[in-house]
Design a protein that fits this description.
- Helix content is 84%, strand content 0%.
- The chain has 490 residues and is an all-alpha fold.
- The protein has two domains: 38-231, no CATH class; 244-483, no CATH class.
- Helix 13 (284-316) runs antiparallel to helix 18 (444-467).
- The two termini are 19 Å apart.
């Protein structure tokens, strides 16, 4: 990175990562409260509702959010106008869908398995929910990381507060309180940001902007739906093919594994604005150089998460022994998160080149693989099988996007072999660590398995530290120089 650019990128990246982990830590710390107040069945019902939000949001927001990164370059001097018009497009269509949902509320209720009041809450929420993401994206591309962090912090704390309060008030239907509490803060923020974005841009409809956004968004709907299939459809299928309780166990283990995604997504979101600028200026070597280091960082984080999983889940649910068995979900989901982290590099290129149909085609193929594997293996092996089918599907997705970028777009940007070898190596190490996931009830055997797991992790990280000692020393030196040296401006 050039000196004028590297500081805001690194600084925002560090703060995005730290804040994202801190915010997620709040959710983790409060997790024992949820497990104590909710049965595994209620936990599954409450969290499966979020899956329906993700699914319906794909259609109501038209996926136009994917256009923002490129629009920041193409409409640099009219960015606020573009965001305002973008919001007008998505909210108009969401309001139309809301009217349809009111008319067919009973049919939708029967289809998704939630009472009519929750169906109406769902579609009202989707009218303003995208405005929060638009504001987050605006702050991210303008390197206003403090505002971005504040929004995320308010959302996190508000969600925890209202969820607990409403679960207490609705003690006879605590899953209902958990659902409303989980979306209330975001809904209020969405209303506020809707007004602010419209006030700043002063444009509700601009034909040029709507056409531009739709050219990005409509082809991305299949892609986004495929991602939801990969990330959410498993819990819906578990709920229907197994039980609400199994869905709750799966979601609990999946939730811990997604802490890894908090790290990787924060890194990726901080990287993306700089990546777009560098690629626009043709600085491919710079992108390749730093991306290799991010690959190694993701690999190290994944190994750490898989090692810590059994003890972490026990600490998070000290009185909920029924939840501890969900540790078996963590390793394959964490590996899937790593594959997702890797394939996003290829998606970034496809988005920059405005080749959204290619993104959709690759993602649909992976979604078909996921659905098929789930249909075959969940009835036979239960909810844990869904974690492995998710991992397999993300691997397919990584491969598909690599083929699309490398051979269709003919873009040679990354150290592809290095990335795939890292994926293979981390998978092997994590599967070995999983062999030492004995149950607590195994008595004497359990005493020694954590020692073996942590030993494998320490040896692996030691080898990594020795092999990459120059990069590690350079990173610490950079941070010390840029952030702690006396006389350095903030």
């Amino acid at each position: 990175m050039r000196n004028q650019e590297e500081r805001p990128v690194l600084k925002s990246g560090i703060w995005y990562t730290v804040s994202s982990v801190a915010i997620r830590a709040v959710a983790i710390i409060t997790s024992p409260i949820y497990t104590a107040m909710l049965t595994t069945a209620d936990y599954g019902i409450a969290n499966t509702f979020n899956s329906w939000i993700e699914i319906f949001n794909i259609f109501t927001c038209l996926c136009v959010v994917y256009s923002i990164g490129r629009a920041k370059i193409d409409y640099k001097d009219r960015f606020d106008e573009y965001l305002s018009s973008l919001q007008g497009l998505s909210s108009s269509f969401a309001a139309f869908v809301l009217i349809l949902a009111i008319l067919f509320r009973k049919q939708i209720s029967a289809r998704i398995g939630y009472e009519v009041p929750l169906v109406l809450v769902l579609f009202v929420y989707l009218v303003v929910y995208p405005s929060v993401e638009y504001m987050l994206q605006k702050c991210r591309y303008e390197y206003r990381y403090k505002t971005n962090i504040l929004i995320s912090l308010i959302t996190c704390v508000g969600t925890v507060f209202f969820s607990i309060l409403l679960m207490i008030l609705w003690s006879d239907r605590r899953y209902f309180g958990k659902i409303i509490g989980s979306i209330l803060t975001t809904f209020l923020l969405g209303v506020w940001f809707y007004i602010r974005i419209l006030k700043n841009g002063k444009k509700f409809y601009v034909k040029e902007y709507w056409i531009y956004a739709l050219k990005f968004g409509l082809p991305m709907i299949p892609h986004a739906l495929a991602l939801v299939v990969l990330a959410q459809i498993d819990r819906i299928m578990i709920k229907r093919l197994c039980s609400d309780s199994d869905a709750g166990l799966y979601i609990y283990g999946y939730g811990f594994a997604t802490l890894l995604m908090i790290f990787t997504n924060a890194i990726g979101q901080a990287w993306l604005p700089w990546f777009n600028e560098e690629l626009a200026e043709g600085h491919k070597e710079s992108i390749r150089f730093y991306q290799k280091k991010l690959v190694l960082l993701g690999a190290v984080l994944t190994i750490g998460f898989v090692t810590l999983a059994p003890e972490a889940l026990m600490l998070l649910a000290p009185r909920g022994r029924d939840y501890w068995v969900s540790k078996w979900v963590v390793p394959p989901v964490a590996l899937g998160a790593l594959a997702q982290y890797f394939y996003t590099n290829y998606v970034n290129v496809e988005l920059f080149r405005k080749k959204t149909p290619i993104i959709a085609a690759s993602s649909i193929l992976a979604a078909v693989v996921n659905f098929g594997l789930n249909a075959v293996f969940i009835p036979r092996f239960g909810y844990i099988a869904a974690a492995y089918t998710t991992f397999a599907s993300y691997l397919f997705l990584m491969l598909f996007h690599y083929i699309a970028t490398r051979f269709v777009l003919k873009e040679k940007l990354y150290a592809d072999l290095f990335m795939f070898l890292a994926m293979v190596a981390v998978t092997g190490i994590c599967l070995v660590i999983t062999l030492f996931y004995q149950n607590v009830t195994d008595g004497e055997t359990y005493r020694y398995t954590p020692i073996v797991r942590y030993g494998i992790m320490i040896v692996t990280l030691g080898v990594f530290a020795i092999a990459r000692r120059h990069d590690i020393m350079l990173l610490f030196s950079y941070i010390k120089t840029r952030f702690f040296r006396k006389g350095t401006q903030a």
